[in-house]
Amino acid sequence: xxxxxxxxxxxxxxxxxxxxxxxxxxxxxxxxxxxxxxxxxxxxxxxxxxxxxxxxxxxxxxxxxxxxxxxxxxxxxxxxxxxxxxxxxxxxxxxxxxxxxxxxxxxxxxxxxxxxxxxxxxxxxxxxxxxxxxxxxxxxxxxxxxxxxxxxxxxxxxxxxxxxxxxxxxxxxxxxxxxxxxxxxxxxxxxxxxxxxxxxxxxxxxxxxxxxxxxxxxxxxxxxxxxxxxxxxxxxxxxxxxxxxxxxxxxxxxxxxxxxxxxxxxxxxxxxxxxxxxxxxxxxxxxxxxxxxxxxxxxxxxxxxxxxxxxxxxxxxxxxxxxxxxxxxxxxxxxxxxxxxxxxx
Length: 345
Hints:
single chain
C-alpha cells in the first residue's frame, strides 16, 4: 500500500469546484433510463451515450472523477481511445463500481446485504491494470420504524463488508469510495433519517477503524439527511443542510479528505440546491462535494433521446449541470442560474 499515492488520488477526487459523475449504472438500470426516452439499450447505444458525457469539452473544469460500470471500463471512444485513458488525459480520475448488488439479508426480512467480496482482490488487480484508480461499493440501508428497520445486525454486516472492501482496495493502490446509503424511500421524517444516518455512520467508521483503513486515502459517499419521499412533511433546504452538517460533524473524522453526496432520488435542482446550502453554512473539516448519477444526467438524456444529431445539445445540458454543481461546491449557486439551461438548448 502506497499511502501517499492513495492520499493524492483521494485529494484529486475532491478537488475544489469539482465532483464525481456516477456513470456506473448496471445494464438493467440504464435500460430503464433508456426505456423512459424510448431508446433501445444495446452495447453500442450505451457506449455512444457514455461517450457524449466523457467527450464534452470543458467537463474537466467541474468533474474530478467518473465511476464506470464493468462494461464501460472496457469500452472505447469512436476514435479507438479506451475510455479510462480518454478521461485520464483530461485530468479526470477513472473509477469502477465493484459490488455485485444488494441481496436479501437472511433471517432479516426487508433488509439487504451487499455482495461481491468473493474474488474482489483479483478483480481489483485487473481493474487497476485497465486504468481504474478508485472504486465504489454501495451498502443499502432502508428505514421502516414499524418493523424495527434498520436492525443493529444489518448495520454491522454492511459496515463490515464496506471495511473489508476498503482494505482490499487500498492494498491494490485503489482509493475506496465508502457508500453507506440510507434510502429516501418510505414515509419517515427527517428526524428519523437523522437518527438512522448517525447510527449508520457510527457503525461504519467503527468497522473502518477496526480494519485499519487509511482514512486519508478514502472518500465517503453518503446520503443527505432528508425526509422520506412519502413523508407528509418535507423539510426545507435549510433544515436538510443543518441536520446533515450536524450529523456528519458528529460522526465523520476530519482525516477523511472529502464527502461526496449521492443524490438519492432528488431532482436535479433539489440535489444542487441542497449541496449549495450545505456548503454555504461555512467551512467544514472535509471537502463537501457531489457524486451524482441521475442528478447530472437527466437533462442530458432528455436532450439526447437517442438521436446522434442531438449530441451537442445533450453535452450542453450535461455541462450546464456540471457547472451548477461545481458552483454549489462553494455555496455560489443561485436558483436563477437554472434558466440558462433553456438558453443552452
